[in-house]
Write a structure and sequence with these properties.
heterodimer, A: globular, B: 141 residues, 434 Repressor (Amino-terminal Domain), three-stranded antiparallel sheet, 5 helices, elongated, disordered C terminus
Amino acid sequence: MTTIEELVEANAISRIQVEIHPRDQALRLLYGTPGFIAWLGELAKGSQPERRLGEATPAEQVDDLFNTFLAGQPLVHMKQFRSIRAEKNAVWELKTPDIRIFGWFLRKDCFVCVFGNWTDVIKDHDLYRGYRIAIRRLRRELGVDETLCVQGVTPGDVLSL
Amino acid sequence: MTSFHFDIGSRARHAGRFIGRVRGELLRALTLRKSEGELPQQVLAEKLGIQRSLINQQLAGEANLTLRSLADLAWAMDMEISFELKKPMAKAGQNQPILNQAMTTSTVQYGQIKYINGAGKQVSVFAAPANPETVQAKKSA
């Protein structure tokens, strides 16, 4: 049985943090795979989609999403997060106007980010199925079994709301 | 253990989180009204005399909200807007920022990426600025 600590020790995942307001506490945990963190680095450099939808920049949108998540603030189901398919060991999506982040919940309030991409690219090329399959494959390769994957698919199964 | 600190600078952070907070508040208010069995988006659109798709876009953050459109949405949902500007107050027992950094005005293009080693060592990797010439000019000025 693989543990979160073993995944971190093996550098399969790393903690992701953002500056949280001094009055807040980090109540949730966020991890990212090396590939996702490299993508996040490009985002911080200012990469933009061809057609930006949100008023905030993509990096600002992600900072706000991560802050909302980590500080334990409520996220609106379907508008800000949802499961790709209602199934056991579901793959989940975190959403901002311009960005979609795919991954899974290791446990309640503990999310691993695996892929990030522009919303319009994902919709134009219908990448949902591909990301879902790739994440399921990655979990198998990492030896992640059901003990490190939230089984339920209701919002209350994955987030303290 | 290595952790990744996604830092876009305080100016961008303040802007992004304010925009996100307004949008989140609208989404939550609408979700609440829906759960009470009232005000689906179609009713909102009819009340405001605008297309439902525009309301969807505004709530999804895909269309800019003006102060007037924000006020209109609040009116249509029969909600009050509370807005206040105040100086940040340090209170006993609250946390300190992750890094003791001075206020920055960096935009996303100048955002820093910081890799923080869990053992206490800290390695900072700075993202390349969008326009290195501008930075060079600033340095030489």
